[in-house]
Amino acid sequence: MAYRVFAVILALCFGSPAWAIAPARWQACDDAQTVHCRIVTPEYERLTAPLTTLSTTVRVPPGAIGDPIAVEIDAMASALVRWNGVVIGANGFPGADRASETPGRYSARLVVPRALVRDGDNRVTIVLSAHHLWLPIGQPIHRIATGPPRDAQGYTLRHYLPTLATLALPAVALLVLGALLLAGRIGRQAAPAMAVLAAIVAQGFVEISKIAISYTYPWHLARMEVLTGLTVIVGLLLVGMTSRLLVPLKPRIVVGITGMAMGVACLIIGGPDRQSLAVFEIAMLAIAALTMQAALRHDRRAIALALIAAALAVWAYVAGPDFLDTGYYVSAAIAAIVLVIGAILRPATVAEVPVAIPAVEPVVTLRDGARHHLVAPSQIVFLKADDDYCSLHMRDGREIVVTMTLKAVLALLPSDFVRIHRSHAINVRHLHGTKAGPNGRVAELSGAIVLPIGRAYASALRAFTSLGPASAA
């Protein structure tokens, strides 16, 4: 029994049939009488005519007359196939318009009856139509071949076997991170990474669903567009995470610009496979560009991230659409392993009580995911809001980022703190005065720090500090 299982695996992984017969060239004709024809490559035919007729001559050597022969078609179209003028089968049914066409499967194999096979030249004619496509496709024909019948199911499984194997790692990593989150070992900072893993796992399942489901070509197109959409989600999540971690810019702005670039690429590039590839490359190049500033400051995390993103972009460009079936999921599997190891090894919390805390001033506890910072309010010069995060700028020059909103942090601080702008609050103990700036009044703080004062907050600041415009420094 074990020997048979091993033999099946070897057949799936290495047993690909050799196609002994290859057509010399294909012709596309404008009518059934094959009067106006031109030499074409089927994979580049757009199928814009109501009916497209492709034909070629297949030469069968004398020794292959008794061998089985099939016509195989992978295309987003319906097809009717004739061998030496005799119909040998159809995939759906081609028609002159949408009402008369029956959508066919994306993949079809039509076996040629042996009685129709001649010694020498044989004429193959394929009539195609694609009226049920709901998006324009630049290359609706993926492959047309004649020769010994191929095990289509085995080929499909063999093609997606690497995807199936590597997909297990992101799926397990997602379950482990979810368990750690529920156990309190990690905080909300892991949520974006978990969202990326969830999108990749969903993408993988849609990808390998072809093993079990024989899609008609309209549903195959829908499947491809879902894969492209999930690639967009993964790319934008990764760009947003990079912006939050390393770049002093608004994540929403960065994600918006990247999304616009992805949209333009999808308009310019035809075909869901190449669109997905372009979207992934744009995301990787955006991450590499975002991390350059931090990398120039010799931030090791930024240097490593920039190199990885650039390497993945180059790998995807060189490999082409095949990268999405293999390299994409291999990269996700490696990233999933790193995420889980980092989550397990990173301490869950920091000690709530340090060795020595001055008794003269109480400290506040501010949350950073599953970690906590103990901060003396008097050492805070000002606070800056950053979406759901808040950064504390300390008297000694440090910057502490916490996973709390500015409003939530101010609720824990004493009355010495006042909001002067939608994005800033200050410790009035470090306020030296206010003065007119190029775009309105500004506040001068310790350390030569200058912050804008919003018009909606100016009166509250004057009431709080008794500093009017006339007393500006």
TrEMBL record:
InterPro entries: LytR-like (IPR046947), LytTR_DNA-bd_dom (IPR007492)
Signal peptide range in chain numbering: 1-20
Record domain HTH LytTR-type: where: 364-467
GO-annotated molecular function: DNA binding; phosphorelay response regulator activity
Record PROSITE patterns: HTH_LYTTR (PS50930)
Coiled coil: none
Keyword set, alphabetical order: Membrane, Signal, Transmembrane, Transmembrane helix
Transmembrane segments: 160-183, 195-215, 221-241, 253-271, 277-296, 303-320, 326-345
Stored PANTHER family: STAGE 0 SPORULATION PROTEIN A HOMOLOG, TRANSCRIPTIONAL REGULATOR-RELATED
Name recorded for this polypeptide: LytTR family transcriptional regulator
Protein's organism: Sphingomonas pokkalii
